[in-house]
Amino acid sequence: MTNPDDDTVYVRGVQVPLSTEAINTIYGLGDPVDEHSEFVEAITEPELATVLETVAIAGAEWNVSSQGAYTCLRSSLNPPAKVWYHFLKSRLLPTTHGKTVSKERVLLLYSMLTGKSINVGQIIHREICAYAARKSGALFFPSLITRMCCNARAPYLVNEEKLHNTGEIDAIAVARIAQEGPAEHSHRPSSSRPAAASSSSTSETLQQLKSLEQRISQQEVQQYQMMTMLQQIHQQQQQF
Predict the structure, then answer these.
(1) Can you list the positions of beta strands (E) in the chain?
(2) What is the pTM of this model?
(3) In a 10 Å sphere around its CB, with 0-12 CB exposed, 13-18 middle and 19+ buried, how is residue 112 labelled?
(4) Longest dimension (CA), the chain
(5) pLDDT by residue (tens digit) across 114-132?
(6) 1 is a domain residue
(7) In a domain, 10, yes or no
């Protein structure tokens, strides 16, 4: 599964669909209009500045490498952006970089914060192909891949390890993530209103994250239950 044009992969002799459409179907997302990709393809320098103003604290700047790669410091993200970035790097564009955020992820974060429609299946499909091509390193999207293999009735090994769902992002996690990093409010002019606005924004972000996490967690729980049921059936068959 290293070619982005591949829509299926063979797992132990069984053909498993892994297309953009199949992934979107698993999450109940249908076939969205991809406003995010259209935005990224037509991005301009002035728009990059607007993007950073939206996701980061006042005074934050793009860092541009000698190769022309744009990044920003994760600590410069504003509280709502920090929370959504935690979801983004855990569920959509996994990364092991902790201090900096790539331009690709900043643009996706901006689209999430501003309500642009996103083709989630396309992003995940592209990431799976990219990680498969590396042939080493971490395994991302394990629950999704397992669910799709189970749906296609790919055979499994009885001694395969089952990973338990770690749970959704709750209010405590949101508060912790939003406060990570140095005190950013020193960059902002003093006012009596931002605190209330921040509280309202955090509450709204929490509700949106809960909705997404619940949908994903349901898929993981169903996948875990399916694996347990298959193991029970296998054990019963061995008794006869």
Answers:
(1) 8-11, 14-17, 63-64, 70-73, 100-102
(2) 0.71
(3) buried
(4) 75
(5) 999 999 999 999 999 888 8
(6) yes
(7) yes
